[in-house]
Amino acid sequence: MATRIPNLQVTQVVDGDSIKISLNGKTESLRLICVDTEESHSSSSKPVTAAGKAALEMAKKYFATADGKLAQIDIEFDTDDAVEVALQKHRDNYGRLLCYVHKDGENYNLKLIQEG
Length: 116
Description:
There is one protein chain. By secondary structure, this protein is of the alpha+beta class. It has one domain (4-115): CATH 2.40.50.90. The protein has helices spanning 50-63, 83-89, 108-115; strands at residues 4-15, 18-23, 26-32, 72-76, 97-103, 106-107. A five-stranded mixed β-barrel has the order 1-2-3-5-4. A hairpin with a 2-residue loop joins strand 1 and strand 2 (18-23). It starts with a strand and ends with a helix.
């Protein structure tokens, strides 16, 4: 069984494949594993595209709650390492956690792929 951390609060939707959460009293950046959406902000060397903006809007809607706040999620890593090990081992070059995101039992990474 994969390493999973439940009930984490989303604090910001950065773009279609990146969000921020509260974990252990600090803000962590997450990068959705196996997903790469186009850019929605002009802060990188890649061009902003309509598909990137659409992915951002989809993520904003997905992680929003009925009362206008942001949802709680579970994160899952590709291994069954202890949580402490997974939090060190599963990071990209920017220090973001690489993981799957689940909300209400649904795998958001897979949803993004299925919906294109």
